[in-house]
Amino acid sequence: MNLISYGFFIYILLLIDTASIRSLDTKTISKLGFAIFILVSGQLVVAISWSKYLANEFKISFLMSLQSWLISIKGKYTPGKIASPILRLEDSIFDGKRKQLYFSIFIEQLYLIASNIFLSIYVFFVNSYKMEFHILAFILFSIFLNLLSKLNFKKFDFKYLRVTYILQFSVLLNFLGIFLSFNSILEQNVLIYTLVYQLSTAVGMIISIVPAGVGVREVSVIQLLKVLKIEIENLNLSILIIRVQLLIADLVLTLMGLLIKILKKNY
């Protein structure tokens, strides 16, 4: 499974047309580099949430859980994304716990999809949007999740929801990273583009048969902008750059996981 995941990851990297990216000026590249840092941070928040959950509920080493999560990132690049949760739980320390942990991963993905939709749905209500309603809805949703975290359903529990106060920052950081990327290239409608891209991220997570949502997000962005009747300005270049940024972010995270693994062996 590891070799297959690496193979698909390298294949996706080779598909990138870098000609347009090489034409960017140094200042723009610097801004895009900072956006990658934000995107990496957003992913790390999920990794930390997962590792904290395992440490609290199963007394599993935080560092071991973090390493497994980081290395499993490459599994997103296999069709169906089945490899990612398998790689996350492949170590023997998860023996006897996988049934509950697979359920927890399912909860995590549902939460991230719902959060992306909740954050980006504003794009359809620009004229009638009220921040007060958004905040109230978020508070009520958080209370509901806290109550849900106390339930058990046929030997499955929802305790992972207790760390959603950490997980929510992943979505916000991802939103900020995408906003900075669009803002580095485009001059108008940056917020709208970001909201649409965030919504397409949720679509890409739902349609999991495509490796890492490649193509699904991009097509979703274009179609949603057409529905909203928003002018498409340098969109192809922007989407290509963001896709490259996400690939680089995943590569950095995978290398971090491998580095932790190597350091653990040496020390």
Instruction: Tell me the number of helical segments per DSSP (H or I, 4 or more residues long).
Output: 11
Q: Give the overall form.
A: globular
What is the CA–CA distance across the termini?
Answer: 27 Å
Uncertain stretches = 1-6
Percent strand equals: under 5%
For the biggest β-sheet, the strand order reads 1-2
Broad structural category: mainly alpha
Q: How many domain regions?
A: 1
- By DSSP, the count of extended strands is 2
**Main beta sheet, described?**
2 strands, antiparallel
Q: Determine the fraction of residues in helical runs and give it as a percent range.
A: over 70%
The overall pLDDT average reads 79
Order of helices and strands: HHHHHHHEEHHHH
Radius of gyration: 19 Å
What can you see in these coordinates?
The protein has 11 helices and 2 strands, in the order αααααααββαααα. The protein has helices spanning 2-14, 19-22, 26-58, 62-72, 83-88, 98-120, 131-148, 164-185, 190-206, 216-227, 235-266; strands spanning 152-153, 156-157. It has a two-stranded antiparallel sheet with strand order 1-2. The protein has one domain. Helix content is 72%, strand content 1%. By secondary structure, it is mainly alpha-helical. It starts with a helix and ends with a helix.
Give a summary of the structure in a few sentences.
The protein has 267 residues and is an all-alpha fold. It has one domain. Helices cover 72% and strands 1% of the residues.
